[in-house]
Amino acid sequence: MVGTGCSGTNAYRYGTMREWVLSLTVVLADGTVIKTRQRPRKSSAGYDLTKLFIGSEGTLGLITEATLKLTVTPASQNVAVASFPSIQNAAECVTHVVEAGIPVAGVEILDDVQMKCINASGSTSREWKESPTIFFRFAGTPGAVKEQVGMVQKIASKTASKSFEFARGDEEMAELWSARKAALWSVMAMRRNPDDHVWTTDVAVPMSRLPDIIDATKADMAKSGLLAGICGHVGDGNFHAIILFSDKEKEIAEGVVHRMVKRAVEMEGTVTGEHGVGLVKRDYLAHELGESTVDAMRRLKMAFDPLRLLNCDKVVRTEQPAPGEVKEW
Amino acid sequence: MVGTGCSGTNAYRYGTMREWVLSLTVVLADGTVIKTRQRPRKSSAGYDLTKLFIGSEGTLGLITEATLKLTVTPASQNVAVASFPSIQNAAECVTHVVEAGIPVAGVEILDDVQMKCINASGSTSREWKESPTIFFRFAGTPGAVKEQVGMVQKIASKTASKSFEFARGDEEMAELWSARKAALWSVMAMRRNPDDHVWTTDVAVPMSRLPDIIDATKADMAKSGLLAGICGHVGDGNFHAIILFSDKEKEIAEGVVHRMVKRAVEMEGTVTGEHGVGLVKRDYLAHELGESTVDAMRRLKMAFDPLRLLNCDKVVRTEQPAPGEVKEW
């Protein structure tokens, strides 16, 4: 068919890394070196090995080289920060931005706890409102960026924003974005003693369910007594929890994460949006996808690594678990 | 890691269909039914089975259901059409559009032969310039679309465009896009007798090589004496040839396609951008990707379909070819 694949140029949406990978060089378990693809932007020649190896966590082969797509720096960029009385208000704002067809390059949320940590840790050079806050990134042609900032400002004020600021120049842009950048470090700075641990974990749900799962997870965290911030990629329905805990609180933290994962699966989401399953989330896969789908993944593992040499038993188990080894769902 | 996946909202770039698929239901060769994924926009839970089945041409399983991403209709859209003295001028225009960071939603090229066929077949309601022509699609917020049309118009005039038209309203938009839509049918309408065949085939190369490969392929087609139009997705370095031939001219057409494929591989491209390899391009895969990569694909096939029940020997051979069966490279 001619005409299925009308192609555009640069679209300013910072997606996941995998969308930017054209080709990989991979060393397979038997030592064979393969290149998954040449470097055109589009190919339908054979199976998509590139995507298969991305996110396989070293269990199918060892990636030694990656060819990435290039893009130009946007002609114009900006950042805006809006704070809201609640997560629901903040999410409602983003929903209206999407419905209005405004192609925002990035839209991130930090919760009140996260904003408090940023202030308390002094990670940035200013004081922030300690309520749910949305960070918008705009990129495109100069008039487009200006127009989009204006449109988003109007929508934010209609959805009860308590404040809305946008940058007037590169320096202000960096300043406004600095809180978003400081999220992880600011929670780490809250450790009461050097033995405290930080657990960063993530899940993703359909965008419409994001405020519900964040609210439920926040309530659970508050009840647990742990200090935990939330930082979300709203446009993807994906959020991270950054949880502080001591050795003694390990089981409490595990409970919080377990319930967060369960909630995500029940809302038709995934046990991890970006982090991968590794060992800790491996046994959740069957709950998310079903036993048959995990079996299909196991076939892939065994096809590429029949001797089970590479990161064995990560992502999928290749042997039956011992009795009692799998956590109750 | 927190913060790798900053997420935007709608980016108006009509990509390939695969970018819009969230999840698939697939019947495997042994009758097992699997669902590859739940429906969040982002997941890193396990291997990417979704992308594996997309484009596998029915050789790994039977797709029975697909869950797609939704997007809103852009607030504003437009179409512009620019004609150029040569393919090189047209490509230069697109290069400058990309370099200027203008996020065009679609950019398509039709060559002079293609434009002649559209006029001769009366497929549209107007007369077109019979020279290489670029069709731009714009989508976004109203001011952004207006700004982008203006920027592209300036660039086109600096790269020797012979004409530049943009739509003033939905009707004109449909009219300007009508030639792009009529590409395939207008060449088919040129058949001299009902037994003539139409061969549609495609390759893709890195964007910078697109004008070179189109020029070389056009010269080869002219020499062959066959009527053949070219229609390209410039933003992806991907183009289609639409070749008319009679039973007697079959070998000539095969030669044209063979050399077009070879040229693409030599320019670090792919033997097919959208159509897939099926049987005809299957033996080209090793030239594009190397024997080891094809072996890795064969492992996938045998892992999912050990009895070779599904579209056997398409995409990859599962048995040694008979002597003389593989075309000379």
CATH A-level architecture of one domain in chain A: 2-Layer Sandwich
Query: What is the averaged pLDDT score of chain A?
Result: 94
CATH class of one domain in chain A: Alpha Beta
Poorly predicted spans of chain A? none
Percent in strands of chain A? 15-25%
| Spatial extent as radius of gyration of chain A | 22 Å
Query: From the structure provided, what is the oligomeric state, counting identical versus distinct chains?
Result: homodimer
Helix coverage percent of chain A: 25-40%
Distance between the termini of chain A: 47 Å
Shape, per Cα inertia axes of chain A: globular
Structure write-up:
The structure is a homodimer of 329-residue chains. With 329 residues, the first copy, chain A, is of the alpha+beta class. Among the domains of chain A are: 17-68, 2-Layer Sandwich (Uridine Diphospho-n-acetylenolpyruvylglucosamine Reductase, domain 3); 73-186, Alpha-Beta Plaits (2-Layer Sandwich). Chain A has 9 helices and 10 strands. The longest helix of chain A has 19 residues, at 170-188.
Task: List key phrases describing it.
three-stranded antiparallel sheet; 35% helix; Uridine Diphospho-n-acetylenolpyruvylglucosamine Reductase, domain 3; Alpha-Beta Plaits; homodimer; 329 residues
Summed up, what is this model?
Two copies of one chain form a homodimer. The first copy, chain A, contains nine helices and ten strands. Chain A has 329 residues and is of the alpha+beta class.
Write the layout of secondary structure elements.
The structure is a homodimer of 329-residue chains.
Chain A lengths: L20 E7 L5 E3 L13 H5 L8 E7 L7 E8 L3 H13 L6 E5 L1 H10 L11 E8 L1 H17 L4 E4 L3 H19 L8 E8 L5 H15 L2 E7 L4 E8 L4 H17 L18 H5 L1 H14 L25
Antiparallel strand pairs in A: 1-2, 1-3, 4-6, 4-7, 5-6, 5-9, 8-10, 9-10
Keywords (chains A, B): FAD, Flavoprotein, Oxidoreductase
Family (chains A, B): Belongs to the FAD-binding oxidoreductase/transferase type 4 family.
Cofactor (chains A, B): FAD
